[in-house]
């Protein structure tokens, strides 16, 4: 996967407009009663009405570039979700993301700090991400994987793996045959 570099001091007008739109909608979502239809409509608007069927997102949430986020069906994202999404984020079907998780698809260049370096994050089907997890740029989380509470994921996670720690390491594999098919 190729790294994209963006100069934050010289941004494209469409990127600036999307950042404004996303920030405004996140503010409105986070200051609206979460159990109301209005809040759910704002969440749909934030993600350009592309959320998968039966997906539930509990505020507060924050993402600066929501147009770069794709979320599948039957996804549950709990309170405190934050996403630096310049590099792009894909969350596939049947994924659960617990409280206070952060996904970063971008970082700053070590020497040219006004440059952000971007790589996409991909979370495959049926993933469970525990409380206070951080996922860093360029990571893919494999199908059926479990990321334990407090983990910092710096490298790809294989299918069916359970990872924990900082940096996250595989501690075991789950039996893929035991997962119910979604067909």
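Q: What amino acid sequence fits the structure above?
A:
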């Amino acid at each position: 996967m190729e790294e994209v570099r963006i100069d934050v001091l010289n941004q494209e007008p469409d990127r600036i407009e999307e950042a404004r739109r996303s920030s405004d909608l996140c503010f409105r979502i986070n200051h609206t009663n979460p159990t109301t239809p209005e809040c759910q409509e704002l969440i749909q608007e934030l993600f350009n009405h592309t959320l998968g069927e039966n997906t539930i997102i509990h505020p507060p949430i924050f993402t600066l570039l929501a147009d770069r986020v794709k979320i599948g069906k039957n996804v549950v994202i709990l309170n405190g979700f934050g996403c630096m999404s310049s590099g792009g984020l894909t969350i596939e079907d049947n994924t659960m993301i617990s409280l206070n998780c952060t996904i970063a698809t971008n970082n700053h260049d070590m020497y040219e700090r006004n440059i952000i370096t971007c790589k996409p994050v991909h979370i495959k089907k049926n993933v469970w991400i525990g409380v206070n997890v951080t996922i860093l740029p360029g990571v893919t989380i494999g199908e059926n994987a479990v990321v334990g509470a407090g983990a910092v994921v710096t490298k790809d996670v294989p299918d069916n793996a359970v990872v924990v720690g900082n940096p996250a390491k595989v501690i075991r594999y789950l039996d893929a045959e035991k997962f119910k098919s979604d067909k």
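Q: And what stands out in the fold?
A: The domain at 4-174 is CATH 2.160.10.10 (UDP N-Acetylglucosamine Acyltransferase; domain 1).
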